[in-house]
């Protein structure tokens, strides 16, 4: 079978590899049909690392994927050959303290597809995964939509961590208070939020915010195409990040914002996010900074009693995301802007790295011609 591997900085090759085999009763053999190019793939392509996670070449890549079941192990129930599935790329142990506490996203032995030294990447014609990581999708859902379940589940998890409950009354994580629930003696008010950086994750956050309930949502980015997509995804206003966003939003929302989602990875946006918040507000850190350390004003954070919430992938949001797409409560259509074959993966990565041609999400179609 064919598989894509990083061979050096800004180098990727499609090579032949042995077809994988089911070896455990709880495993599933998948044909990979779609793979989305994620910002983390671009980090590895251009820098060879994300923080302390450093590639050892050759290295497999990719984790946003969907596929079709080719075979199942003897202990698998609920899946059969021919079933189409979305994939949860986080392989967890299920037995460590974090898993037992209901925090599989911080599993001590977590192996993530396409991460250095962890699980094999998804950019391959076939792969073997635990059945628990293969979620059946309804006939109404496309394979493109299924490949977007993973990034959209990260967005939904961030919205939940913000305390924004959904119309479907999906549970909010323990300890989070809903921004849609007014404090005693206060009139109901729509939460006011900002999304800094509207690439695929930022746009996903906007989609999930608008699915959750009424809110006033602002968006910022450097690219006009992404600002237009943000408006399409429900942003009430979208601003070029080069303008004085803090002054503009202070004019519109003099009391400050309830919540800011930092999705760009730009360290400067962490400081900007703090300055946008009202006292008691929450800053959710989703984007991946390029460096291991960032600077921000701790005094602003303590004086306004701000909450800084890191977002580690997702927890218990894959199935709800599938359901929301199937119910047309989430429409990820604006996210996929470009399509490539597997043998065109270098062109896809270069496009995404350069933000060319209005790209938001480049999607690899592994069922197409070679």
Explain how this protein is built:
- The protein is an alpha/beta fold and 370 residues long.
- The protein has two domains: 2-148 and 332-365, Quinone Oxidoreductase, Chain A, domain 1 (Alpha-Beta Complex), CATH 3.90.180; 153-310, 3-Layer(aba) Sandwich (Rossmann fold).
- It has helices spanning 39-47, 97-100, 143-147, 149-161, 200-212, 224-232, 245-252, 267-276, 298-303, 318-326, 345-354, and strands at 2-8, 11-16, 27-36, 49-50, 53-54, 59-60, 64-72, 84-87, 90-91, 111-112, 126-130, 134-136, 192-196, 216-221, 237-240, 257-262, 277-285, 307-310, 336-340, 361-365.
- The strands form five sheets. Strands 3, 7, 8, 11, 12, 19 and 20 form a seven-stranded mixed β-sheet that branches. Strands 15-14-13-16-17-18 form a six-stranded parallel β-sheet, with helices on both faces.
- The radius of gyration is 20 Å and the shape is globular.
- Residues 166-171 have low confidence and may be disordered.
């Amino acid at each position: 079978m064919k598989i894509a591997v990083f061979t050096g900085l800004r180098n990727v090759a499609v090579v032949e590899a042995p077809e994988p085999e089911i070896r455990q009763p709880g495993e599933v053999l998948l044909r990979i049909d779609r793979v989305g190019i994620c910002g983390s793939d671009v980090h590895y392509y251009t820098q060879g690392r994300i923080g302390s996670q450093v590639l050892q070449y050759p290295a497999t890549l990719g984790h946003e994927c969907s596929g079709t079941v080719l075979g199942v192990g003897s202990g698998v129930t609920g899946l059969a050959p021919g079933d189409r599935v979305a994939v949860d790329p986080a392989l967890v142990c299920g037995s460590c303290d974090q898993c037992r506490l209901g925090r599989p996203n911080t599993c001590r032995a977590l192996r993530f597809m396409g991460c250095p030294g962890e699980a094999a990447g998804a950019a391959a014609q076939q792969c073997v995964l635990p059945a628990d990581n293969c979620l059946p999708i309804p006939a109404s859902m496309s394979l493109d939509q299924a490949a977007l379940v993973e990034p959209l589940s990260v967005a939904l998890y961030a919205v939940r961590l913000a305390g924004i409950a959904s119309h479907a009354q999906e549970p909010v994580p323990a300890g989070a208070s809903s921004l849609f629930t007014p404090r005693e003696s206060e009139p109901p008010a729509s939460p006011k939020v900002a999304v800094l950086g509207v690439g695929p994750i930022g746009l996903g956050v906007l989609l999930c915010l608008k699915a959750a309930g009424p809110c006033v949502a602002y968006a910022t980015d450097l690219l006009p195409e992404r600002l237009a997509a943000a408006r399409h995804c429900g942003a009430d206003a979208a601003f070029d990040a080069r303008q004085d966003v803090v002054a503009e939003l202070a004019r519109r929302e003099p009391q400050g914002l309830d919540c800011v989602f930092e999705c760009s990875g730009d360290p400067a946006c962490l400081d900007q996010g703090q300055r946008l918040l009202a006292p008691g507000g929450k800053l959710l850190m989703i984007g991946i900074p390029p460096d291991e350390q960032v600077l921000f004003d701790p005094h602003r954070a303590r004086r306004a009693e701000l909450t800084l919430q890191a977002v580690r992938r997702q927890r218990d949001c894959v199935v709800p995301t599938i359901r929301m797409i199937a119910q047309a409560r989430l429409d990820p259509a604006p996210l996929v802007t470009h399509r490539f074959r597997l043998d065109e993966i270098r062109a896809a990565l270069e496009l995404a790295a350069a933000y060319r041609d209005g790209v938001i999400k480049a999607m690899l179609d592994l069922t197409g011609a070679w």
